[in-house]
């Protein structure tokens, strides 16, 4: 178990650098780019990211399927077909929506190359996870904020493009550079699977079913955050939307990147192996360690937000973003449920319960919507969006906790 702990801690240390670098760069952007332009850019990238969630959701199923069958050619070819279909759908639906409904005033080709480069990065990074090429994963994570900053500085200060164009050039060129880097490094470790017809045997059908369930499940988790964006866009002003988009959501996503994503990168494969071996005691030991770690992290987050969030937001961002500290303070109390729920979802998926993991995520969306509208009956304040989101995370924790209890009980019975 010590080895998996080391992988987990190492991933967090690398992520800390990328988070600090990325967040510092966002602060820099908030100071030199107009608030409405920056809000439009982040909203557009959110919509692109949402359209690519199915590719990220494939990752868990790819890891589990390859570990079991070693049929990488079949797995990757299925993944390729999904990417091609998704890019075509995005080109026909997402791009016109951004241009004509959201109001992103930029040439179509910027949007086209954004979706293409983001797709190529998702395709290659999923392969790294499947083959467990952790070294390349860490290197690409380290490079991501560096490449973004370099290309923005070139576009904005050297090429003298306007703010929105500079932001999209940064996105396109950084993802293109990352894709090239991963492809060159990966080819030294693993050959690229040849393009071939998919063999629909039992293992492939199971992978395909779990991939779809995992994609929808992962997407459902992110949809909750985007639902918050929608509520703020629909019921409140662009000022409040900006507080959430520029300050609150990035900080929440950084915390998730640091302490939640490593659960699925490192602990999920370990839990899958332990569950297959019916190693009940080892799973309990891993669970206890992660629970202690989660309380330490979330407790520190709460204290920092209670005592320093107001001063932090006012000092780091422009005064117009000051209202975001209320969002951060409310969310900090519920971050413990995000961490614990991640571990429990990983254990549920490790046991083969992809459909049950999906049920937990979808229930979270429903809880968020209900909690938000109930809260609005008593308050018109925009904090009701964040409060509803927090209650949804707590509800998902309860549901996943009940399912994990059932899994552990079955394992104990099988040991007797």
Q: What secondary-structure arrangement, pairings included, does this model have?
A:
Elements: H1 2-32, H2 35-51, H3 53-69, H4 72-102, H5 108-131, H6 134-158, H7 163-189, H8 202-235, H9 238-259, H10 261-276, H11 280-316, H12 324-332, H13 335-350, H14 354-376, H15 383-415
Spatial shape = globular
Number of helices: 15
What's the Cα radius of gyration?
Answer: 21 Å
Sketch the topology as an H/E string, one letter per element: HHHHHHHHHHHHHHH
Helical percentage? over 70%
- The fraction of residues in strands falls at under 5%
Termini gap? 24 Å
Number of strands: 0
Major beta-sheet overview: none
Mean pLDDT: 83
Total number of distinct structural domains: 2
Counting helices, strands and paired strands, the structural category is mainly alpha
Low-confidence stretches: none
Give the oligomeric state.
Answer: single chain
Structure summary:
It is globular and about 60 Å long. Helix content is 87%, strand content 0%.
Would you write up a description of this structure?
With 416 residues, this protein is mainly alpha-helical. It has two domains: 33-235, no CATH class; 238-416, no CATH class. Helices cover 87% and strands 0% of the residues.
Distinctive features:
15 helices; 416 residues; globular; mainly alpha; 2 domains
């Amino acid at each position: 178990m010590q080895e998996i702990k080391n992988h987990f801690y190492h991933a967090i240390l690398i992520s800390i650098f990328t988070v600090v670098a990325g967040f510092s760069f966002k602060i820099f952007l908030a100071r030199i780019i107009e608030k409405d332009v920056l809000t439009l850019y982040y909203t557009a990238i959110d919509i692109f990211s949402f359209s690519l969630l199915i590719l990220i959701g494939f990752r868990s199923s790819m890891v589990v399927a390859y570990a079991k069958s070693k049929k990488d050619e079949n797995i990757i070819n299925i993944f390729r077909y999904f990417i091609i279909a998704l890019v075509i759908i995005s080109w026909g639906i997402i791009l016109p929506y951004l241009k004509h409904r959201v109001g992103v005033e930029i040439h179509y080709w910027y949007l086209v190359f954004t979706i293409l480069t983001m797709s190529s990065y998702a395709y290659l990074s999923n392969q790294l996870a499947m083959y467990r090429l952790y070294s390349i994963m860490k290197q690409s994570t380290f490079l991501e904020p560096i490449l973004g900053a370099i290309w923005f500085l070139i576009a904005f200060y050297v090429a003298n493009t306007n703010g929105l164009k500079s932001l999209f050039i940064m996105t396109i060129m950084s993802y293109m550079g990352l894709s090239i880097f991963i492809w060159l490094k990966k080819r030294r470790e693993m050959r690229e699977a040849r393009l071939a017809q998919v063999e629909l045997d039992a293992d492939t059908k199971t992978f395909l079913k779990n991939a779809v369930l995992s994609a929808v499940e992962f997407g459902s988790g992110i949809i909750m955050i985007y639902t918050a964006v929608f509520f703020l866009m629909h019921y409140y002003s662009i000022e409040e939307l900006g507080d959430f988009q520029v300050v609150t959501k990035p900080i929440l996503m950084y915390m998730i990147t640091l302490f939640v994503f490593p659960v699925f990168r490192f602990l999920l494969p370990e839990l899958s192996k332990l569950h297959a071996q019916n190693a009940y005691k080892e799973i309990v030991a891993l669970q206890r360690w992660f629970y202690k770690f989660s309380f330490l992290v979330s407790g520190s987050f709460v204290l920092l937000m209670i005592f320093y969030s107001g001063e932090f937001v006012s000092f780091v961002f422009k005064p117009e973003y000051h209202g975001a500290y209320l969002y951060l303070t409310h969310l900090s109390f519920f971050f413990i449920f995000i961490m614990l729920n991640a571990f429990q979802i990983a254990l549920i998926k490790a046991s083969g319960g992809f459909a049950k993991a999906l049920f937990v995520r979808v229930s979270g969306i429903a809880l968020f919507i209900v909690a938000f509208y109930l809260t609005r009956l008593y308050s018109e304040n925009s904090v009701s969006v964040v409060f509803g989101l927090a209650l949804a995370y707590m509800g998902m924790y309860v549901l996943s906790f009940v399912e994990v209890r059932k899994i552990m009980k079955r394992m104990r019975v099988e040991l007797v």
